[in-house]
């Protein structure tokens, strides 16, 4: 799966969050990191070619006044035009998925009803859901990054894993897919092959238990 990460950030060199994410994606051969602000003015034909070549498109940005930075809006206005992303018959990007990686300085609990912000993150990101619907994209659950500067090394390690899975897995929220991702990584190193086999065995056992539970529930309803 080829993933295009579209990054909107006007001062990316000073962003610890974006620099961490960029470093986390370096080893992923099927991921293209594309910083919009460094590619102004846009070559529309080249930008559209990048979109066509991708299986997954990820919009990555910090929340600025509850919105994405200006470069993402400009890019959408100039590149995502009629007859390229949609026409009279519907969306032209069917078969591709759209992800959102969004960072902000408040705790995640602030973005819910009754929280400090008072609105949910989903409300602020609703326009991208409409964009996905219009263009035929499958929208993924957003990856929210809250208060990166306050995270410790363990938090950063977990974020690296979540981010790499988000960019590379067909279904990044699926437990089985996540487990297989770990197994594949462990099998790449001879020193951890045994651990990979143990994890695979445990995953199979969980699947068997789930099937047994499903059969028991089905029997109760008969």
Automatic annotation (TrEMBL):
- State the UniProt keywords alphabetically: Oxidoreductase
UniProt cross-references to Pfam families, sorted A to Z: Flavodoxin_2
| Annotated Flavodoxin-like fold domain residues | 1-167
Q: What is its EC number?
A: 1.-.-.-
One GO term in the molecular function aspect is: oxidoreductase activity
InterPro entries assigned: Flavodoxin_fold, Flavoprotein-like_sf, KefG/KefF
Which PANTHER family has this protein been placed in?
GLUTATHIONE-REGULATED POTASSIUM-EFFLUX SYSTEM ANCILLARY PROTEIN KEFG (PTHR47307)
Q: What is this protein called?
A: NAD(P)H-dependent oxidoreductase
